[in-house]
Amino acid sequence: MSMSLSPQQSSVRSTSLEESLTPVLRVRDLSCFYGRTKALEAVSMEIYEGKVTAIIGPSGCGKSTFLKTLNRIGEMESNLRIQGKIELFGKDIYDRKVNLNLVRRLVGMIFQQPNPFAMSIFDNVVYGVRAFSRPRESELNRIVETSLKSAALWDEVKDNLDGSGLDLSGGQQQRLCIARALAVSPKVLLMDEPCSALDPIATMKIESLIRELQKKLTIVIVTHNMQQAARVSDYTAFFSADENRIGQLVEFDQTAQMFMEASQQNTRDYVAGRFG
Ligand SMILES: Nc1ncnc2c1ncn2[C@@H]1O[C@H](COP(=O)(O)OP(=O)(O)OP(=O)(O)O)[C@@H](O)[C@H]1O
Ligand SMILES: [Mg+2]
Questions:
Q1: Residue 264 lies inside a defined structural domain of this protein
Q2: Number of domains the chain is built from
Q3: Least confident of 9-23, 58-72, 205-219
Q4: What pairing do the DSSP bridges indicate for beta strands 107-110 and 11-12?
Q5: Does pLDDT of 4 surpass 50?
Q6: Of 13, 118, 203, 253, which shows the fewest CB atoms inside 10 Å?
């Protein structure tokens, strides 16, 4: 089943009927503007619970903008204007009465460049926890251990928790940022090209971590690496940067379907590495 999203043909397969999927996030008719620049146009899609969704498309198609609307980080940037509706667990996150801290706690974010703070590994992990609550020391110790284990970093740093987060390797820093995000018990993790600054081995570690983490939470990952999208994601959304349809969702489907026989020629060209 497909539905039209724009004057030109789009394909969004409704797989929820087949697999009984639960949408964690529901994006309805989302358009975004930086001043007069349109970054996204009339995007409608759902992010399913416990699944990894990859966002792909050429540079400038609005991938990062899309991600940043999902936890309202985008509006911290000066002039991003948003139309449409985004629901998290059925609640409109752009409602005036929404608790912004709660939205950002439930929907964590990992960036392209690892960004640990200039403080100890321990303090990095519990940074958000301390911002949201006043836990006891024993509770903090427990959270640090659990989060670092979940981020597959514990064994490498457990004897050096007072060491600076900045002294870790790039790959370790990214896993520290993941531990910091996990420490506040998010339900969704947004990752914007999380491996693009990492070497192949560090990338592999993050990829297998993503597959582990999806047992506990929902992940949305932006990637330029088609093999990575194919390896780590269950669903894929392809956005367009074509002049006449910038920021439109061209196609959304199960990843295997998108990579084997996407319904749109544009998608087939893009995943095959033929740009056009
Ligand atoms: N802070 C900003 N101010 C003004 N325009 C912006 C800003 N951020 C992004 N844009 C514009 O919005 C459009 C979408 O940008 P976005 O960063 O979302 O694309 P992207 O798909 O993530 O690209 P890339 O693959 O290069 O990271 C582009 O035209 C970009 O120039
Ligand atoms: Mg980007």
A1: yes
A2: 1
A3: 9-23
A4: unpaired
A5: no
A6: 118
Atom of ligand 1 nearest to the CA of 65: 18
Distance CA(118)–CA(115), nearest Å, equals 9
pLDDT score of 5: 37
Beta carbon of 180 within 6 Å of any ligand 1 atom: no
Which tokens belong to 246?
């910038």
90 lies in a domain?
A: yes
Which CATH number do you get for residue 266?
3.40.50.300
Is the predicted pLDDT of residue 17 greater than 60, yes or no? no
Regarding pTM above 0.90, the answer is yes
- Report the residue among 30, 32, 33, 34 best suited for mutation to probe ligand 1: largest number of ligand atoms under 8 A from its CB: 34
Give the closest residue (by CA) to ligand 1 atom 12.
39
Test site for ligand 1: of 30, 31, 37, 43, most ligand atoms within 8 A of the Cβ? 37
Enumerate residues 6+ apart whose C-beta is below 8 A from 258.
Answer: 236, 238, 251, 267, 271
